[in-house]
Amino acid sequence: MEYIKAFLCGGILCLIGQVLIDRTGLTPAKILVCYVTAGVILSGLGLYQSLADWGGAGATVPLTGFGHLLAKGVKKAVGEQGLLGAFTGGSTAAAGGITAAIFFGFLVALVGKSHPKR
Description:
mainly alpha
């Protein structure tokens, strides 16, 4: 049942993004920024954690989950370090994911060949 919940949650988030791309003038980049921002706002309001508990990886893997992770990191760091934590908490919480993205992006760049756009 866990897989079904994750599939439904992630699928609905993707469906919303696709509808926004098809029906509005928003670019994919703007939609991605909106997803991260929505994750931060919903986490700040205390609403995203219940979605993450229900949807599992379907809620934590998409960009809304990244925003949720940033908000959780900032909240924890502010509690421990005060105002300075507002500037460092998000990057500290997301450091593993950011490092993995850079590392694997570098590996793919070594293996793959780039071609000029035509």
